[in-house]
Amino acid sequence: MFVTVKYRRGRCLLSDRLRERGYTQTQLADRTGYDKSIISKYVNGTRGMNFDTAKTIAAAINCTIDDLYEWIEYD
């Protein structure tokens, strides 16, 4: 029998990833073409990223989408 593990996205960790890599929000905006105000909203958790945006940002800062979020296991 297989037990399915499910996850839901938790807190955005973009600010942590930027700090670890020494990038500013402005540098990320320049690297991705996204407006700095939108990057700020992702960092502050007032706006969620869609999958395409998360993939673009992850590639720009050399991490995976999984690295951008806290993942919470549930039944």
Automatic annotation (TrEMBL):
Protein name: Helix-turn-helix transcriptional regulator
InterPro entries, per the entry: Cro/C1-type_HTH, Lambda_DNA-bd_dom_sf
UniProt xrefs under SMART domains: HTH_XRE
Pfam families named among the record's database cross-references: HTH_26
Residue ranges annotated for the HTH cro/C1-type domain, each copy included: 14-68
Top-rank taxon: Bacteria
